[in-house]
Design a protein that fits this description.
This protein has 5 helices and no strands. It is an all-alpha fold. It has one domain. The longest helix has 18 residues. It starts with a helix and ends in an 11-residue tail after the last helix.
Length: about 100
């Protein structure tokens, strides 16, 4: 299907509905092959960062740490990096949070 067909098929959708569909497709691609072809970008941090606390069950923490070690391409090998990547991904991979290369 070409872009013209897609545009005509979505002409009755609102901009918000189209954005929802983009997010659903992005989620589906991510779920399909775990990473959806997305590689970890370099995130902007500047001179100010924040340390936050989250509560998770011990079993989930251990599983997440193991996952982070096995998927360094998205996590950098750390739980913190995995959480940062997942938050960025949840925020629609907004480039305002990354350093352009």
């Amino acid at each position: 299907m070409n872009d013209t067909a897609i545009q005509s098929d979505t002409s009755d959708l609102t901009d918000e509905e189209i954005e929802d569909m983009r997010r659903m497709l992005q989620w589906w691609k991510f779920s399909r092959d775990e990473k959806g072809g997305i590689q970890r970008p370099k995130f902007k941090r500047g001179s100010e960062t924040q340390v936050i606390t989250i509560r998770l069950g011990t079993e989930m923490v251990q599983a997440a740490k193991q996952y982070a070690k096995q998927h360094r391409d998205i996590s950098g090998g750390t739980l913190s990096g995995l959480i940062e990547f997942l938050i960025w991904h949840t925020l629609s991979c907004d480039p305002k949070f990354t350093d352009a290369e």
